[in-house]
Amino acid sequence: MDINTIRTSALEKFRGACRVCPVCNGYVCAGEVPGMGGLGTGAAFRHNVQALAECRLNLRTVHSVKNPDLSCRILGLDLALPVIGAAIGGIALNMNGALSEAAYTGAIVSGCRKAGTIGMTGDGPVPVVFDSGMAAISHEQGWGIPIVKPRETDKIVELAKKAAAAGAPAFGMDIDAAALVNMTNAGQPVGPKTIQELEYIKNHTTIPFIVKGIMTPDDAESCWQAGVDAIVVSNHGGRALDHTPGTAEVLPYIAEAVKGKMTVLVDGGIRSGADVLKMLALGADAVLLGRPLAIAAVGGGADGVEFVLNKYKAELNAAMTLTGTAGLSGVPVEILW
Ligand SMILES: Cc1cc2nc3c(=O)[nH]c(=O)nc-3n(C[C@H](O)[C@H](O)[C@H](O)COP(=O)(O)O)c2cc1C
Fold first, then answer.
1. Each residue of 262-306: pLDDT tens digit?
2. Whether residue 298 has its Cβ less than 6 Å from ligand 1
3. Rounded to two decimals, what is the model's pTM?
4. How far away, in angstroms, is 63 Cα from ligand 1 center?
5. Count of domains in the chain?
6. Domain for residue 217, yes or no?
7. Cβ contact 20:239 at 8 Å
8. Whose CA is closest to 299, among 28, 84, 144, 108?
9. Which domain, by its residues, includes 288?
10. C-beta 50 within 6 A of ligand 1
């Protein structure tokens, strides 16, 4: 397996749904939702990639960091690298049916496990999306994290209980899907949640609760007040609201508000191990990877996902060595230029 084989195979299987660009930056696929792009003008997706490109690491090589430690502990889980597979659902609709929903989530969950990390699974208007994710997680003895839509609160509690019964170590809700019309049109209303509703979900479930899609310090504080265990700083890969800032722009403000009080994850536009290190220096505890793993899963299945994660691992190792970063707890902001 090599990266060119994965990419060539993915390009063929996507049949136009993703052009597998040299840099996955949201230009060619702008507006392609459904599809793999960002919503509307595609600006929010592009801002994610741009914000990371504008953030620079500087070289530092007179030090003793020869074997950096890439491992981390997130929500009580020991991971070999601080990169988690992002939830991606609706494969038939978004990827031209390049894979079945089951084959896709299976590849993500199993590939992440093989690489020493964990994958998330998605939710959608048709039951096959959530159910395929749960089947993939059960197949890996519970080693996966389902992310449910911001449905009616009791429905979320019901799905979280299913996740706990399958052995999942945590569950989440992508609160930024609060205006997803295809859910509401399918008779499954979604919407924003109050602090009290978040608290209700937390108090009626037993496994750690992640809220994905936080872009302001105020919302992060509200999650903390509600007892939420982790947030994902995310704009849904630019698929929720056009023209939001990039996640690397807002992350430092959010980390300042809640870092150390709860786990802070981030996603959006991360395209290399160096990008992972930048996000950690900006205040994240770990990151999620979306489209790059989608290309890997379509092009190479679970082995492709494992291969791409190992590539990120090697790149992160090099970036840590070349910035004098020995480990991942409290990556200093000073490594940024
Ligand atoms: C086709 C597609 C489907 C997605 N489906 C979901 C989903 O079901 N649940 C969810 O929480 N996020 C979903 N996301 C968002 C991702 O989890 C993640 O936030 C985003 O892809 C990160 O940006 P990146 O792709 O630039 O890495 C989806 C993204 C894409 C591209």
1. 999 999 999 999 999 999 999 999 999 999 999 999 999 999 999
2. no
3. 0.98
4. 38
5. 1
6. yes
7. no
8. 108
9. 3-59+72-321
10. no
